[in-house]
Amino acid sequence: MIIFYTLAALLVLSSLMVVFQRNVVHCAMALVAALFLIAILFVTLQAPMVGVLQILVYAGAIMVLFLFVIMLLNPTSLEPRRGLWWGFGTVVALLLGGALAALVSHDEAPADPFTATELFGAPESLAKSLFTDFVLPFEIASVLLLIAIVGAVVLAKRGN
Amino acid sequence: MIVDIGIIALKAFLVLFMVLNLAGVLGWIERKGSALMQDRIGANRASILGFAGMGLINTMIADPVKFLTKEDFIPPRGDRFLHTLAPCMALFPALVTFAVIPFGDTLQIGERVINLQVANLNIGILYVFAMGSLGVYGIVIGAWASNNKFSLLGGVRGSAQMISYEVAMGLSVIGILMVYGTLELQEIARGQGTLIREFLPESWRFMKAAVGWLPAWGIFLQPLAFLLFFTAAVAETKRVPFDLPEGESEIVAGYHVEYSGGKFLMFFAAEFAEIVTAAALMTTLFFGGWQIPYLLPDGFHFPWGATWLLPHLVVTLLQVAAFALKVVFFCWLQILLRWSVPRFRYDQVMRLGWKMLLPLALLNVIVTALVIVAVQ
Predict the structure, then answer these.
(1) Which residues in chain B have their CB less than 8 angstroms from residue A64's CB?
(2) Do B141 and A123 touch (CB under 8 A)?
(3) In chain A, which residue's Cα lies nearest the Cα of B165?
(4) What number does CATH give the domain A1-76?
(5) Domain map of chain A by residue range?
(6) What is the mean pLDDT of residues B285-313?
(7) Which residues on chain B are in Cβ contact (under 8 Å) with A56?
């Protein structure tokens, strides 16, 4: 319980830093920290597989590419546009916060806790469900990624 | 309960102690070894009462003391916080990866069975790659926080190189996972305890006679995967011939050009700790981990029928010693590489990673799958 609240507090703090830091690299590093903390949260929930994939995919690959792009462009002069976006963001945040508050305060008996079996979250059971029950969405997702890559290559080629 | 925690803490301490000290010794081997190969004398300046110990005093005592007492310079226009954080981020992944590497089978003391591995995760190898993928932050952030064009170039080179070779490295291991059918490193090491004939079907008599006596190590079942993994691992540790992020002759010292004192020492230690980790991974995945050929839990069983029974403690000690010896061998092999091959050009590095290693790794996965289907 103490671990959860410590993690949650740190997570909220680093997420806030992602938004409020003015330096792009600081924002990116705060996001890495947030992703890492989420991964630890998954591990404490007995889903080490999800936690490790979180680090491997988001912290280890996507954020590195983010940083790579930031370093190549070095956008020191890019100031965030205030005014309209600020107002829009505030409205959305308030709406989401309100919805969340309504959900939390909504008094309802919690669903039966899912008892974690021996194989819960293990690579074997994850692979089994991915390749039997969810094989179609899984393949569609991979085709979607392939299309995205092909599209990116085509766009890059056209520039030359 | 207390005893369990104590055992885990002891294992973690032992592993970290061994890795960090081996990293220090490797620094000495690198300097003295390179001197040997180039017909020089090498480090011999510092001595205690006339005893220089083959330069060991230099590297083990004088150098660290000198590093730690030097001025810690932070570039005035740089980022103070990230500049300090970066060396820690470089060292951290190299050290924590060792948590899942088994350095022996189980040790039985009375009723208690101790698994000679700090943490037995059912996702073992994924954890290794997850931690390895974090290693790139140390150099990217260090390069950026230095506010120096040369270091930024080194950081950009490093991030592109490490991401590229991570892909090939991950794919090269898939074959091993398919052969042994598990992600757990301890299970992979155990799977290499049998002989190849156990893997072959009855009808392949000729093959059984020819190669059946070999231990079922990854190197015999997945030779191509080992070559790919070794190449990618050297690229991931950013050492010659893949040391473009440093590239002294082009960009001064690359990502750590603005580092001095203790922080530079941390980058330095991270590089050698990565070598140790890579060597331990090669040992575990391809060279049987702690296995000694024909050594089963109760003693040696040779394929020609002879047996030599040994007590449990001796077997365990032999296995741990075998693991250590293999790790040291692969560390030495990586150091040897440094003085044997010249640095690649950057486009060559990228072409090797994406156009040779990656297709070969994919081919290896497909061929492995076909062979597994044929054997079953």
Answers:
(1) 133, 136-137, 140, 159, 162-163
(2) no
(3) A61
(4) 1.20.120.1200
(5) 1-76, 117-160
(6) 80
(7) 126, 129-130, 133
**B144–A25 C-beta distance less than 8 A:** yes
In a domain, B356, yes or no: yes
Query: Is B19 a member of any domain?
Result: no
Chain B interface includes A84 (CB < 8 A): no
Q: Do A56 and B130 touch (CB under 8 A)?
A: yes
Measure the CA–CA gap between B118 and B108, rounded to whole angstroms.
16
Q: Check residue B360 and give its pLDDT.
A: 92
| Structural domain for B241, as ranges | 71-375
Question: In 3-state terms, what secondary structure has residue B313?
Answer: helix
Q: Which of B122, B133, B141 sits opposite A122 (nearest CB)?
A: B122
What percent of chain B is modeled with pLDDT above 90?
6
Distance from CA of B33 to the nearest CA of A (A): 34
ipTM rounded to 2 decimals? 0.76
Tell me if B317 is assigned to some domain: yes
Distance from CA of A67 to the nearest CA of B (A): 8
Residue A62, chain B, CB below 8 Å: the answer is no
pLDDT tens per residue, range B93-127: 888 888 888 887 777 777 777 777 887 777 888 88
Average pLDDT, chain A: 81
Q: Which residue of B has its CA nearest to A28?
A: B141
Handedness of CA B256, B257, B263, B269 (dihedral sign): positive
Q: What's the confidence (pLDDT) of residue B230? A: 92
**What average pLDDT does the segment A63-91 reach?**
74
A120 touches chain B (CB under 8 A): no
* Cα A52 from Cα B131, distance rounded (Å): 9
What's the rounded Cα separation, in Å, for the pair B262 and A88? 47
Question: Contact at 8 Å (CB) between B42 and B54?
Answer: no
pLDDT tens digits along B30-78: 888 888 888 888 777 777 776 766 667 777 778 888 888 888 888 888 7
Interface size A-B, in CB pairs within 8 Å, comes to: 75
Return the closest-CA partner of residue B269 out of B234, B237, B232, B242. B237
Contact B245, B254 (CB under 8 A): yes
The answer to whether A92 contacts chain B (CB < 8 Å) is no
Q: Judge whether B239 and B334 are in contact, CB under 8 Å.
A: yes
Q: Share the mean pLDDT of chain B.
A: 83
Residue A63, SS3? Answer: helix
Per-residue pLDDT of B122-167, as tens digits, reads 788 888 888 888 888 888 888 888 888 888 888 888 888 888 888 8
Q: Which residues of B touch A60 (CB under 8 A)?
A: 129-130, 132-134, 136, 166
Establish if B368 belongs to a structural domain: yes
Phi, psi torsion values for B51, nearest 5 degrees? -100, 115
pTM attached to this predicted model: 0.84
pLDDT of residue A146: 93
